[in-house]
Specification:
heterodimer; A: 168 residues; alpha+beta; extended; B: alpha+beta; 12-stranded mixed β-sheet; 27% helix; globular
Chain lengths: 168, 292
C-alpha cells in the first residue's frame, strides 16, 4: 500500500516536472526554424515624431534629401546586423535572453554551425555553447569555452555574446 | 490617405520577398543590400510629390480642418499636468506586435513598472515571458540589470531624466518604457507634427471615466484615453504603426500611483550576490567600455 502511494507520488511529481518542461519549451514558437522579425510596433509617439521631424526638415533641401534619408536607413540596417533591434523567434523554445530578442548577426549563423572549434572573433550569439566557464577579468565577465572566449554584453535590454580574443 | 504614406507602402511592395524557410545569411545580406538600393530609389521618386503636397495651399487647409483644437488642448493640458508631478509610479500592461518576414503578427505581452522622481531619479522593471530586466538611474549613472542572467552593465548618465531618456535611446537603443510621459509638456514634445486630431468621446478604462482622443501623424495613428477631472492622466495608449503593411500595434494600459513610497537608495544599483558586470553595447556596434 505504502509503496503504491510512493509510486503515485513519484508519477505525479514526474508529470509536473515534465509539463513544466513542455510549457517552458513552448515559448518562442514551435515548428522549428527561425522566424525573423522584420519590424515591431512603435511604442512611443514622440520618438517617432522626432524621426519624422528630420525627414520633414530634409525635404526642403532637395540636394540633401536623398542622402539624408539614406543615412536614416543605414542606421536601421546597422541595427539589424548588430542585432540591437532584430528579433528572431526560434523553434527551439527558451533561450536565456528572452523570447523576443534573439539577435543572431549574420556572422553568428556561421558560428552556430561551426560551434566551439573555430568561432569567428566578432561574431555574436544569443548564448554560448554548453560547458563554458565563467571568468572575471578586469571586473568584466567572460565565458571561456575551450580556446574560445565569449564576452557577454547588454544589447538594448537583452544579453548577447560576442566572440573575442582571449582577454589575457 | 496622407501623401506621406506612399513611400513606405511602395517600399514594401518593391522589396523582394524571401521564400519562406530560406532565410539564410546570404539571403539576409542580399535583402539588406537590395532594400537599401530600393529605398534610395523610392525616396527619389516620391520626395518631389511630397514637397508639392506639403507646400500646396490645399493640403494646408485640409490639415487645419482635420485638427480639433479641443483635442490638442486636452493633450497640452495633460502634458502640463504631467510636468507638475514630483513623483509617480506607473504600472503598465503592454502588448506589442512584432511582424514576421511573411507579415504574420506575433503579439508580445509585458508588464512594466516605472518609478520616477523629478528631475533625476528613475527605476523601471521590464518583465516579459522570459525576461526580467531592471533599469536604474540616480542622476549619475545608468544601469541595466538582467535578472535571469544575473548580469549588469553600468554607464555614466546625464544629469536629468529628460536627457537620459534620449541618450539611452540614441546611444544604446534602449527605450525607457512610457517615454512619452517625459516628453509631453516639454519643448521636446512633438505634438506639432500631428496632422489629424479629434475627440472620440467619453470612454471608461478600468473603471475610470476618460475622454478618448484619436490622432494621426506621419507613420502612426494613435489613440489616448485621458482621465476626466482634476487629474488628466493618460490611462491608455494605442499606437498603430503604418510604415509596415502589417500595421503592428502597441497597447499600454496604465495604473497610476501619485504618492509612491520610495527610498533614494532604490535608484542606485547595488549588485546582488553573484551578479557580474558586462559592457553595454553601443548602437553603432562599439561595445562601450563600461567605466570602471
Amino acid at each position: 500500500m505504502k509503496r503504491s502511494i510512493l509510486f503515485i507520488t513519484l508519477f505525479v511529481v514526474a508529470t509536473l516536472v515534465f509539463n513544466t518542461d513542455l510549457s517552458a519549451q513552448r515559448r518562442g514558437g514551435g515548428g522549428g526554424g527561425n522566424r525573423n522579425v522584420r519590424s515591431s510596433a512603435n511604442s512611443s509617439v514622440n520618438r517617432n515624431n522626432n524621426q519624422n521631424a528630420n525627414v520633414n526638415r530634409n525635404v526642403n533641401q532637395n540636394a540633401n534629401v536623398n542622402r539624408n534619408v539614406n543615412v536614416n536607413q543605414n542606421v536601421n540596417v546597422n541595427r539589424n546586423v548588430n542585432v540591437n533591434v532584430d528579433n528572431n523567434y526560434h523553434g527551439g523554445g527558451y533561450y536565456g535572453g528572452g523570447c523576443c530578442y534573439h539577435p543572431v548577426a549574420t556572422a553568428a549563423a556561421v558560428t552556430a554551425t561551426a560551434v566551439v572549434t573555430a568561432a569567428v572573433v566578432g561574431s555574436i550569439v544569443d548564448r554560448p555553447p554548453a560547458g563554458c566557464v565563467t571568468q572575471v577579468i578586469n571586473g568584466l565577465a567572460y565565458q571561456q569555452c575551450g580556446n574560445t572566449w565569449y564576452q557577454p554584453q547588454m544589447s538594448g535590454t537583452a544579453t548577447t555574446y560576442v566572440v573575442v580574443n582571449a582577454p589575457r | 490617405m496622407s501623401p506621406s504614406e506612399n513611400p513606405s507602402k511602395q517600399l514594401y511592395l518593391l522589396t523582394p520577398t524571401i521564400p519562406s524557410g530560406s532565410s539564410t545569411t546570404a539571403n539576409s545580406i542580399l535583402r539588406l543590400t537590395t532594400s537599401l538600393v530600393v529605398t534610395a530609389f523610392v525616396f527619389c521618386a516620391f520626395i518631389a510629390p511630397q514637397v508639392l503636397a506639403e507646400t500646396g495651399p490645399q493640403s494646408n487647409s485640409q490639415a487645419s480642418s482635420n485638427i480639433d483644437p479641443d483635442a490638442m488642448k486636452a493633450l497640452n493640458k495633460m502634458g502640463a499636468y504631467l510636468r507638475t508631478l514630483k513623483a509617480f509610479q506607473v504600472d503598465s500592461e503592454v502588448t506589442n506586435d512584432d511582424v514576421l518576414d511573411d507579415g504574420q503578427i506575433i503579439t508580445d505581452t509585458k508588464t512594466n513598472t516605472l518609478l520616477a522622481v523629478s528631475p533625476n531619479f528613475l527605476r523601471a522593471e521590464l518583465k516579459s515571458d522570459d525576461r526580467d530586466v531592471f533599469l536604474f538611474y540616480d542622476g549619475k549613472s545608468f544601469t541595466v540589470y538582467g535578472k535571469v542572467e544575473n548580469y549588469y552593465a553600468t554607464v555614466p548618465a546625464p544629469a536629468t531624466t529628460a536627457q537620459l531618456v534620449d541618450k539611452v535611446n540614441d546611444d544604446y537603443g534602449i527605450e525607457i518604457p512610457l517615454v512619452d510621459l517625459f516628453k509631453w509638456g516639454t519643448d521636446n514634445s512633438t505634438i506639432s507634427k500631428i496632422t489629424s486630431a479629434f475627440d472620440v468621446g467619453p470612454s471608461t478604462v478600468q473603471g475610470i471615466t476618460c475622454e478618448h482622443y484619436a490622432f494621426r501623424q506621419e507613420g502612426i495613428d494613435w489613440q489616448i484615453w485621458i482621465q476626466l477631472g482634476d487629474y488628466p492622466l493618460p490611462r491608455k495608449f494605442v499606437i498603430r504603426t503604418l510604415t509596415d503593411d502589417a500595421r503592428p500595434q502597441h497597447t499600454s494600459n496604465l495604473v497610476w500611483n501619485l504618492a509612491p513610497s520610495y527610498n533614494e537608495a532604490a535608484f542606485a544599483f547595488d549588485p546582488p550576490a553573484g551578479a557580474l558586470r558586462i559592457t553595454l553595447k553601443g548602437i553603432n556596434g562599439n561595445g562601450t567600455k563600461s567605466n570602471q
